[in-house]
Amino acid sequence: MFDKLLPRLILSALLFIPAAHAGAPKPAATITALPQAAEWKRHFVRDILPFWETAAALGNPIGNFPTFRCNDGAVYNAQMPCAEFFAAPDWIRSAAGRQYTRMLSRQVFLYGVAFHLTGNPKYLLWAHAGVSYIIDHAFDDKTGNVVSYWDGGEAVSDPSKQTSQDVAYCLMGLSFYYYLTRDPQVLTPILQIEHYIRAHFYDQKAGLYHEGLTGPEADRLDLVAQLDQANAYMLLLTPLLPSAEQQRWREELSGIVQTIRSRFYDHTTGLFIGTFDRNAKPACVFQNVDTDFGHTIKTYWMLYFIGRLTHNTALTNFAKTGAPGVLQWAYLPTTGSWATQPTCSTGPDNNKSTDLDRTSTWWMSAELDQAALTFGISNTALLSYIPKTFAFWLDHMVDRRYGEVWDELTVPEFTPRLPKVHLWKNGYHTAEHAMIGYIMTSAIRSQPVTLYYAFPNCKVPESVRPYYYDGRIASHSETALAELPGFCRTEITFADVH
């Protein structure tokens, strides 16, 4: 079924084999040129975490994390808005001042990664505080629903005003915290919320998740409505669940894959179409909402891991074959950065434009790096992007004055265009980027990967993985956590990570 892959992308992937280029670096040299694993940790601790360690970031009480913050880290004040919000687009300005549960959850993910990489208990406590706040204030244990956001103190949780993507991301922090701790008190609300999403947003007859129940979202086919069920919680949690739930989730993941492949994959371009809107008539495929290099490479990345999890070799091969051409297409060699998407050309076949939007977007750049590192295990040539893209990230995406990274930069002017923290930007992508960088550059060099967990009763569970990857536990040690009674900080060193 995979013999109809886009010839252009297959050719691109083949042309990227080192032997096809005179003077191309040998695999050993490509690996040597990668940033050291310690550099990814150092970047996270030096450039990212300080922005999230202030009283303004932690909220009052701690765990009540604010959604909107100024570029200097101050909490957004509607009476005296910071300058960057005056110039922000309406979709940001109209929501400024709200507090979104999904962003609380993403900040939990950030602190979870900080503990995972450093072992410092303060980050685990901050993650725990965020989880507690979500469960105590946003979760309804009678319905399984969650508050999408608070506006002027009023909680909005009406299903008709929610999207499936929004509710899915409310699970992100809870899921990562459970991955770290296996705390049974957190698993119960996770399962209830997942049941709520499935009951309200999954259309059994159509075989897909709707983005919304009313309004424009109900009439569209949205890639993210399917993809982010896997990305936000299912892929990470499925191997850790009780057997009955695990089997059901594996089947649901297989269904999501089938929907994505059959409904959203564009054979002509090798991209995944973000949105099919019956009311829109785009000039070319690239004008469909969310049809870009970021959503496409993220989809290949998810399909690859779902294939591994469900033992679907054809699916993993499909992802490994399709991703390299997208990476080559998106890469801008003059700046060492990643483009956002192709643009419509004036040629007779505008679906094959090579003109690119050169805007550098933080989450797309992170996802493209992560895919290059992941697929680079078996295709070493893909690793040659990373020294340049990581240097671009450090030199231009990082805000050297206040920390964190910019949302978007114009290239080559390198001018920030959007506020640094808002209703869709928090610490999730920057934290995952650093974590994947550390894990994968260690794995590619056949070096051990050391990560920290906090398991109950100092007992290491049977199934412990280094995030989405596989590895063998080479050693572990436990230390009681006075800050979290009943749990121990567990340092695990993995070997043979892949």
Labels describing this entry:
single chain; 498 residues; alpha+beta; 3-stranded antiparallel sheet; 19 helices; globular; disordered N terminus
Low-confidence regions: 1-23
How many β-strand runs? 17
Strand order of the largest sheet: 1-2-3
Helix content: 40-55%
Descriptive account of the structure:
- It is a single chain.
- By secondary structure, this protein is α+β, with helices and mostly antiparallel strands.
- The protein contains 19 helices and 17 strands.
- It has helices at 7-15, 27-32, 37-52, 55-58, 83-86, 90-93, 101-118, 121-138, 164-170, 172-181, 184-201, 216-219, 223-237, 243-263, 293-309, 313-330, 362-375, 386-397, 428-444; strands at residues 99-100, 149-151, 154-156, 202-203, 208-209, 220-222, 275-277, 331-332, 337-338, 341-342, 356-357, 360-361, 408-410, 415-416, 449-456, 472-480, 487-495.
- Helix 10 (172-181) packs antiparallel against helix 11, helix 13 (223-237) runs antiparallel to helix 14 and helix 13 packs across helix 15.
- The two termini are 27 Å apart.
